Amino acid sequence: MITSVELRQKYLDFFVSKKHKIIPSASLIPENDPTVLFTTAGMHPLVPYLLGEPHPEGDRLTSVQKCVRTNDIDDVGDNRHNTFFEMLGNWSLGDYFKKESIEWSWEFLTSPAWLNLDPKKIAVTVFAGDNDAPRDDESAQIWDELGVPENRIACLSKTETWWGPAGQTGPCGPDTEIFWWQGEGEYPSAKSSPGTDPDSWLEIWNNVFMQYDKTASGKYVPLKQKNVDTGMGLERTLVVLNSFSDVFQIDTFWPIIQKIQAISGREYIESANTVRSMRIIADHLRTATMIMADNIGIAPGNVDQGYIVRRLIRRAVRHGRLIGINENFCSQIAEAVIGIYKNIYSEVLRSHEFIADEIAKEESKFRNTIEQGLKEFEKLLAGFQIAFDKTGERITEISGKQAFKLYESYGFPLEMTLELATENGLTVEVEGFEHAFKAHQDLSRTGAEQKFKGGLADQGEMSVKYHTATHLLHAALRAVLGEHAEQRGSNITAERLRFDFSHPEKMTEEQKERVEDLVNYAIQRDYPVTFAEMTVAEAKEGGAMGLFEDKYGAKVKVYTAGDPNEMPSAHENTLTFSKEICGGPHVANTGVLGKFKIIKEEAVSAGVRRIKASLS
Ligand code: SER
């Protein structure tokens, strides 16, 4: 058996041998990106560098990145879909391009010194070309030269073999995707390709040739630098290497399934239903645990990432009931998850108690109402039956209002009502639910809804200004409240910034005013904003803010508002207002920011406050 530990190491070793620098996994919660809730790919934290900012570690990078994607959540329960996964990635920031990228992927996959996979079972896709970009003949030729026969090089359209931008705008380009034959029987017939026979081919690696920036007007403008962005799925590749037919058999899942078997007293393979429920429980609680393990400390809640965590836990609880688990069990599953990752991601061990507590609280809360909610659901079904008996007409849809009642009174996330409806041959009037839901939520919730659509921040002018304002705010908060006021999260849109920081109590009016004044003072001073590359130790010595943990690579970028040679101090008449470890980008001078205003200061969770502020 090849383990996850071995595969991570092999991948990094291989790319180090090709002169790449290893960068650590970034947080699952994106910093300074308003348009997505989670880091969805290894490229995500690298967007500024893909757009041309220099990276402190150079132009060849490799990493193992924790990722969460919720768009495939309905597919979880089959043999291959997960909401949390690890992405093995390598990047060229304007350095090598298609030839090296493809040749190295091939070498890593097929060389006896590395993964030693059978080349005959590999097929690839290349971009067929359209009005935005030409056919990718170059990639096709490289594959041909490596010996991949023509019938296993599928030329496909943009929907299949193009990647990004992750949102409306941003870096993107044609990709070449690498697939492994998982079909029945012998090695694939001449007719089978990932384009015509998608069920028989498992995508394991995606090499994106990022050469365009999609603009807000929908144009594809060539990027200043041509990049390579590849992503290989750790979980899926382990399936391939171990000849498994099911991703839940790999070593970052199987101990979780075993735990669920022990708690429920049932066998994984007892029936199609137990398999599905156990997979959903394992996937969802693994994801919830990894989100909560992040340094930011997300707890189950009603907005943003917290709401996703809540949905994941609640769905797991319901599937637990379906396999006969009627007592709290989720923190025991979380323990199994922690056991798997504690030596890989140190934050998992650090957050151990927080996770166990929060999961148990959420589970108890939900268990208090789920019984009643399910009864209410039964009542609905009975009502539908009575109506049918009376009128002869069958009601097949749960109204938006009814779904909303299940949400509001019994804590049923919409997905759960949808799932229950499907199990009973019914549909849900989703629009009506959303209508009622929106009417009920405040503005911030609506903002979160938009974020579900996904996408990376455009690097628009306003976002850059807000990013710099965030640094000034961070420095001002520490000056006014004390050193304990540390960044816990940040989110920027073109209209406002949002900044979460640790502080035990509500800020007073005077404190807010003082912070506002200090930031406006820093803007008036028109400090130059510059960066320098250095080691973490040097950054620390120079007074830079940052989480001084294993989050950074050997070299970091430090952005300074003011004189980089001075120690920072956020007060009037100082030479240096703020210094912070950060990827950028930032404005050149603080004077362009305009007027800074705090709109709101509120609690996010115990010990964490949130400020929303605008520039005008
Ligand atoms: N960004 C690409 C993906 O997510 C490759 O890393 O597939």
Descriptive keywords:
616 residues; alpha+beta; BirA Bifunctional Protein, domain 2; 4 domains; nine-stranded mixed sheet; four-stranded antiparallel sheet; binds serine
Description of the structure:
The chain is α+β, with helices and mostly antiparallel strands. It is 40% helix and 21% strand. It has four domains: 4-249, Bira Bifunctional Protein, Domain 2 (BirA Bifunctional Protein, domain 2, 2-Layer Sandwich), CATH 3.30.930; 254-369, no CATH class; 396-457, no CATH class; 461-615, Threonyl-tRNA Synthetase, Chain A, domain 2. The protein has helices spanning 4-17, 47-50, 98-110, 137-146, 158-161, 234-241, 254-264, 272-293, 304-322, 330-341, 346-350, 352-391, 400-410, 414-423, 430-440, 443-452, 461-481, 509-524, 536-541; strands at residues 21-22, 60-68, 84-93, 122-127, 153-156, 162-163, 170-181, 201-214, 220-233, 397-398, 427-428, 487-492, 497-502, 529-535, 555-562, 576-581, 596-605, 608-615. Strands 1, 2, 3, 4, 5, 6, 7, 8 and 9 form a nine-stranded mixed beta sheet that branches. Strand 1 (21-22), helix 2 (47-50) and strand 2 (60-68) form a beta-alpha-beta unit. Helix 8 (272-293) packs antiparallel against helix 9, helix 9 (304-322) crosses helix 12 (352-391) and helix 12 packs antiparallel against helix 13. It is globular, with a radius of gyration of 26 Å. Bound molecules: serine (SER). Residues 41-43, 89, 163, 206, 208, 229-231 line the site of serine.
